[in-house]
Specification:
Shape: globular
Strand content: 25-35%
Oligomer: single chain
Structural class: alpha/beta
Order of helices and strands: EEEHEEEEEEHHEHEHEHEHEH
Distance between the termini: 57 Å
Number of strands: 14
Largest sheet: 6 strands, parallel
Length: 332
């Protein structure tokens, strides 16, 4: 317990445009957490605990370097997070065939502790293709991954997250097919960008990345939130997390319309309808998975009955969403 832990940088999948970059990550002490397949309950619990227990590195200078040699610098905040939002002349030459820009981040100042990976940490950001027909913004918990956010005291969330490794978790039936079809769109070209916006904390980022990758979900930025405690040093956000993240995506891509996907378990219906009303014409459709909770279902149906700005469906299966997408001309 007294050994000095080396340092690391977690770079999260970001997004940008032909003239802007947006990169997010966190500087931490390295807990040597590895999410591998066939991990037992005890090791899974230990891995998740280490992710929540890891110590952040505040107020340290981080350097971001693009493949063309251009560099930017910024400091981490009191919780170890950094954010690069930079304007550059032309990102086009940096984008690969799949629409991603690769970069590296490093500690710029000399540290008294060792740094893993020779102080070079790879990152990626998505730049949607000009051929994209629309974008997809999706929740994760109980939308594509059985979590149990609607359970009493959220006890199922704790059981599923802390005691089940990612490879023991199954996606909700039909969701992979739905997301792949929406990514391909009517042109069958797999260029429609997918963004995952969840109220899960950043501490679970690696776990969720491993789950999405294992089940071949479309690759896309995963936008989580800070796991706040009474001792947090950063100001509490003024806007709800999902609402704020979706607004930023809409602002970043003003010419792109979106399909929003969530569930009836929490506040997705409230958030999505509010955004649609505030930005008429930007939301093509809203799909809400029914978590089969009678009281919550009744509340969601009241919202749906009053909402007229965009098509909104409470679906029991992914096939219902696929059929609507076909009839609406979103997919072939």
């Amino acid at each position: 317990m007294f050994r000095k832990k080396p340092l690391r940088i977690n770079s999260y999948l970001g997004y940008g445009t032909l003239s802007t970059i947006r990169a997010v990550g966190r500087a931490l002490e390295d807990e040597n957490v590895q999410f591998n397949g066939n991990t037992g309950t005890l090791k899974t619990l230990k891995n998740i605990y280490r992710q929540f227990e890891s110590d952040e590195i505040p107020n340290i200078l981080i350097e971001l370097k693009l493949s063309n040699g251009e560099t930017f610098s910024t400091y981490t905040d009191a919780e170890g997070y950094y954010l690069f939002q930079e304007n550059i002349h032309n990102n086009k030459e940096l984008i690969n065939a799949q629409g991603w820009i690769y970069y590296t981040v490093s500690f710029k100042e000399k540290q008294h502790k060792s740094i893993i990976n020779n102080n070079i940490f790879e990152g990626e950001m998505l730049v949607p293709s000009s051929q994209a027909e629309y974008g997809i913004i999706s929740d994760i918990d109980d939308t594509i991954l059985h979590t149990g956010v609607a359970s009493l005291f959220k006890w199922k969330v704790a059981v599923n997250t802390f005691f089940k490794n990612f490879d023991k978790r199954l996606p909700i039936e039909g969701t992979i097919d739905l997301y792949r079809k929406l990514q391909s769109g009517k042109q069958n070209s797999s260029v429609n960008p997918v963004f995952y916006v969840s109220n899960s904390p950043w501490n679970l980022y690696d776990y969720l990345v491993a789950f999405l990758k294992k089940h071949n979900f479309p690759k896309g930025p995963i936008l989580l939130r800070d796991f706040r405690t009474p001792f947090d040093k950063t100001p509490k956000p003024t806007l709800p997390h999902k609402y704020s993240e979706i607004l930023n995506i809409l602002k970043t891509y003003p010419d792109l319309k979106f399909i929003l996907i969530g569930d009836s378990g929490e506040k997705d219906a409230d958030t999505y309808t509010k955004i649609s009303n505030e930005h008429p014409g930007r939301i093509l459709a809203i799909y809400l998975r029914n978590v089969k909770h009678p009281r919550k279902e009744k509340r969601i149906k009241k919202i749906i009955n009053k909402f007229k700005t965009a098509p909104i469906l409470l679906v029991n299966t992914s096939e219902e969403a696929i059929e609507h997408a076909k009839m609406s001309g979103f997919i072939s």
